[in-house]
Amino acid sequence: MFDTFRNAWKIPELRKKLLFTLLVIVIFRVGCVITVPYINPEALQLFAGGTGNMLDYLNMMSGGALSQCAIFALGVTPYINASIIIQLLTVAIPALERLSKEGEEGRRKLTRITRYTGAGIALVMSVGYYLVLRSYTGVLAYTTGWEGIFSAVVIVFSFTGGAQLLTWMGEQIDFKGIGNGISLLIFAGIVSRWGNVITTARTMITNAMNGEIKYFILIPVIVILALAAIVFVVILTNSERRIPVQYAKRVVGRKMYGGQSSHIPLKVNMSGVMPIIFASALLSIPGTIASFIQTDSPIWQGFFSVFNYNSLLYAVLYLLLILAFNYFYVAIQYNPVEIANNLRKNNGAIPGIRPGKPTSDFITKCLSKITFVGAIFLGVIAVMPIILGNVAGMNIQLGGTSLLIVVGVALDTGRSMESYMLMRHHKGFLE
């Protein structure tokens, strides 16, 4: 491992990418502790006790910046929500669908639209977060008069500008760093909050030593589940279904081409951790709205309680959304009809399957099976801590989500580094 890092550090381009990525992450962590103006220190303990609602999730995704009322309090959640909206609309709106098929220029336009949509979502979330802060006594320095109006504008635009700056920083990691910019920022935020995991483990051990029998059972179960989650994520990320392809021989000029065998690799978890992130972000919206409006109506309170991550129905919705986003991503990334047409143009065929529609149907069937298996495994690993946390009465409901994101992002980043190392004829990180 040390030899691998030494070899990577010797490559000037890779060394610059690593240093640039590290610099961006350091700036992100510094921004997570810089409180916006006109906020009193009492706001720093806004979510100290674990509220059990979606603000805890947003606080986790922002690396604790939300509870600090920092400039990066919103994290990259607005951009993630905007990405969900635009990708869903791409399927429904023909103009956006045409943009997605126009190559690099079309993708740039879609990215610009996503960025503007994220700015609008960040502005709405900033206003809502300001209203939440205003509902707490003594949090804001000014609440009335021109001072109150001016401080409100400064706070709202500080949160909005911080979210946009963070999105831009993630894009710079993609362009000048090692890639996976947005995911790496989420990774850094979650890892920075793992001190709470140590505190929870220490509390559980103390309770076990005090004679509470259930913790003698729960501690080994949680450790086994955490290790199993890591193993399953690694296996799913590296597993693939290889569809064999045989190319017919053809003569072009004086040369003969084809005649060799190949395969089409279909990964079991080709969408990575994005279904987890998207499902969590989408389910966080109702809980966030509930915290913003703070209604006393029993009907609305009952409705919003469904989206509390402590509830059983939340776990069911979470699992279904993971399945849905997994299939959605596969549908975007793979077009079986296009793959079948490309095979026929290059005189390739799947053994035992006729070219054309039978080939596309066979690929679709294979995609559906492996996507379902991958989504079920991801969903079970993400939902299991919710069930265990409710049974044991512990605040570990977000543990599966954070663990999946961290392991998945680490593997994705490792693969990108591995490919760069292979281009340089060095041994990679994954060996």
Give your account of this protein's structure.
The protein has 431 residues and is mainly α. 69% of the residues lie in helices and 5% in strands. It is built from 16 helices and five strands. It has helices at 2-10, 12-31, 54-61, 77-92, 94-100, 103-135, 145-176, 181-192, 195-209, 213-238, 274-293, 298-305, 312-333, 336-345, 357-392, 399-423, and strands spanning 240-247, 250-252, 255-257, 261-267, 348-349. It has a three-stranded antiparallel sheet with strand order 4-1-5, with helices on both faces. Strand 2 and strand 3 (255-257) form a beta hairpin. Helix 2 packs across helix 8, helix 5 packs across helix 6 and helix 6 (103-135) packs parallel to helix 11. Residues 426-431 have low confidence and may be disordered.
Which terms would index this structure?
single chain; 431 residues; mainly alpha; three-stranded antiparallel beta sheet; two-stranded antiparallel ribbon; 16 helices; 5 strands
Calculate Rg over CA atoms: 24 Å
Largest sheet: 3 strands, antiparallel
How many DSSP E strands? 5
Order of strands, main sheet, comes to 4-1-5
Q: Mean pLDDT, as a whole number?
A: 78
Helices and strands, in order, run as HHHHHHHHHHEEEEHHHHEHH
State the separation between the terminal residues, measured CA to CA. 8 Å
Q: Give the helix/strand class.
A: mainly alpha
Summed up, the helix count is 16
Helical percent range?
Answer: 55-70%
Strand portion: 5-15%
From the structure provided, what is the oligomeric state, counting identical versus distinct chains?
single chain
List low-pLDDT spans: 426-431
The dominant shape is globular
